[in-house]
Amino acid sequence: MSYSQTALDQLEHGQLDDFKKSYQKALTNDSDDMLYSLAEELYSLGFSNYSQTIYRQLLKKYPTDDSLKINLAELAIDADHDDQALNYLSQISTQSTEYVRSLMVSADLYQTQGLFDVSEQKLLEAQRIAPNEPVITFALAEFYFNTRNYRKAINLYLNLIKSGTLEMSAVNLVERLGVSYAEIGKFEQALGYLEQIKPIHMTSDVKFELAFTYFNLKDYQKAVETFVDLRDSDPQYSSLYPYLADSYVELKQIDNALKTIQEGISIDQFNEKIWQKAGQIATMAGEDEMALNYLKKGHEIAPEDMEILSLLSDWYVTHQQSQNNLKLLEPLVKDHVFDAHLAYNLAQSYQDTGDYQKAAKNYELASHELNDNPDFLKHAALFYRENGHIKEERSYLKHYLELVPNDLEMASMYEEDEDY
After folding, report:
1. Residue 189 in contact with residue 182, Cβ under 8 Å?
2. Are 261 and 241 in contact (CB under 8 A)?
3. Torsion-angle region of residue 404: left (phi > 0), alpha (psi -120 to 50) or beta?
4. What is the DSSP string of 321-359?
5. What is the pLDDT of residues 13-50, one digit of tens each?
6. Which N-terminal residues, if any, form the signal peptide (predicted)?
7. N or C: which end of the chain has fewer CB within 10 A?
8. How far is CA 169 from CA 134, 135, 172, 227, in A?
9. Widest CA span of the chain, in angstroms?
10. Could you tell me how far CA 137 lies from the centroid of its own chain?
11. pTM of this prediction?
12. DSSP label at residue 202
């Protein structure tokens, strides 16, 4: 038995001291082919530093062997020694039989550095040189998948599947294709692929995509079943809870929706979107104070989230808590943050507190974007009527009645003002 094989056997049995001795003997006694195989085995087992020593020893003996340079570059990348990796890769010429492989390794390196354009160009160059190589097609597909360029990924995955390749590097290509279709909103195509995946290959991410696809196809019962299956197998998958809750809402099971989103809160207390959804569902359930507490918590976690802030402001307006609403929104005015809906809410609160000038200013600001919102137009008209500004009142009323012609009360009011 060679020293290399002895070293591997000792490593397998946890005999580390004996392994190190056999490893040293292998370096000086075993053939180069045996050492190369030993380096590969050690790398696969996670003993990269020992592999590196072997490759360096071999490179000194075979300085023109580009495969050794690429192996050393890969080890350098794993150790975050990017400059060292680039040094090895730069030594490989375009004429080398290992050039395509060097392009693939370079692409990985540049992707880890966040240089996605450079990484893509390396892969495309490899594809031009070897257009029919499945490994390159797969690498390019994975690049596009991981950079969320799903449309390009889809074409590449389809090409591989049509050629009979359903799995590569332990990646299920049918799954990838289904997820990619779901991510671009082609849910019917996504479902056709996602439903083919066997339960044993159903990871949490795939279950989520399948449930998400059912949800978007409005098959809420299947969405619930799949989200519940995901929750039961992986309760820490916090993204599922808002969608499961929404699925219950669509099925008019508000109690289940509220219970679900409360479970989500217990799993992830720092996800502002779960608090937001909790506030919305508590409102549906008629739990107004609970809704307020949830929205305030979400705002506390993410004070710059305009959607949560808007919902909290709406709660204050609906419950006529004008001072709380002004306290919430006035800092935005000082920071010159404008949102038409929030300007409308400000206008109502200023109106309630008797500040006509600020109310009028915010009604005017909001009108530029909410001029097709009947609720806004009606409130603005009544505000100007209350303050004796008939011209402005009639302008808003006219536009309102164009949108809601059957509101007889407002139509009568408009007719009453014709003589002014």
Report:
1. no
2. yes
3. beta
4. -HHHHHHHHHHHHHTT---HHHHHHHHHHHHHTT-HHHH
5. 899 999 999 999 999 999 999 999 999 999 998 899 99
6. none
7. N
8. 11, 9, 9, 28
9. 111
10. 24
11. 0.76
12. -
